[in-house]
Design goal:
The chain is an alpha/beta fold and 354 residues long. The protein is built from 11 helices and 18 strands. The mean pLDDT is 92.
Length: 354
Amino acid sequence: MTTYDIPTEQWAQVVEAPGGPAVYKKIPVPSPGPDEVLINVKYSGVCHTDLHAMKGDWPIPTKIPLVGGHEGAGIVVKKGSLVADDIKLGDAAGIKWLNGSCLSCSFCQQSDEPLCQSALLSGYTVDGSFQQYAIAKAAHIARIPEGVDLEEVAPVLCAGITVYKGLKESGVRPGQWVAVVGAGGGLGSMAVQYAKAMGVHVIGIDGGNEKGESVKKLGGSAYVDFMASKDLVEEVKAATPDGLGPHAVLLLAVSEKPFQQATEYVRSRGAVVCIGLPAGAYLKAPVFDTVLRMITIKGSYVGNRQDTAEALDFFQRGLIKVPYKTVGLSQLGEVYQMMEEGKIVGRYVVDTSK
C-alpha cells in the first residue's frame, strides 16, 4: 500500500483580514475527516473569484482567516475512514469551487448539488487550494484521468467546468452561434474552445488586439473589440451569416455594462446566460422587447459532478488547450494586481512548490 510522508507545516497564501492582502506564510497541514481526503496540491489556477474572496466585496461572507483558491490539481495522500475504495492514495484529484454538499437535499438528489443550501465553497467558506495540502469532501473531488498534466488541467477545474456548464444551459446547438463576452480572459479562452469542440461558432467580444488574436487562434469565428467598436450591437449581429445575431450569449465579464447590452444583440428566441459576477451589478432588459422576441435570461453557476467528468473528458481528448502562465505561489499578490488592472490574457497558475 502506498504511503506518503506528510509534513506538519506547509506554505500557503492566507487572507488574515477582510480586504486582504494575502500573506505568504507557513501554516499547519490539516487532517482529513472521515469523509474527506487530503490532497497534495501541485498547481492551482487563479480565478477572479479568488480576488473577490480576498476583497470581501460579494454578499456571501467568507471565512477569516482564509486560504483562497479553488482550481487545485494534485495527488491524494491521505483519506478518511469512510472514503470509498475507488479513491486510492496516489490518485490524481482536483479541488473545485464546490468542496462539498449534503448529498441528501432535493437539489443534491436532482444533480443540482451546487445549489445545496449547505454547500461548502473552496477558498471561500472553507480553505482552498492556495496551499500545499488541502482538504476536500471525497464525494466532490474531480477525478483527474491518469496521465493528465496537472499544471495544465488546473484551470479546467473551475473555468473549464463553469463555461462548459454555461454552454449546456444556453441550449445552443451544433452549427449555431454564441457570443462570448470576455472571450480573451481565463474563462473566455476556454469557452471559445468548448464551444468549437461542441460544433458551435463563436463571436468573441473583448477589448484590445492581443485578446482578439487569442480568440481567433483558439478557434473563434469572429471578434468584436468593444474598445474600438462604434456600434457593438450592430457589429455582433453582422458577424452572424443572416445578420440576426447569435443564438446565445455567455456573459463572463467582470463589469456591469455588458449585462445591460446582451439582449440588444441576441437573436429572437435566444438565450442570455449570466456567468460573470461583477460586484453590485444588476441586470436590465426592456420587458416589451424581451416578451415579443421571446428572449431567455438566466444564470448559470458551476457544474455538477457529471459536468465535471464531461469537461475533463474534452480536455483529456486534446480538444481543450489551456492558455496559461505559471508563477510561484509566493507571487499570488502580483497576479491579483494584474487582475485588478485587466492585464491578464488567459489564465495564471501557481506552483505551490515556489
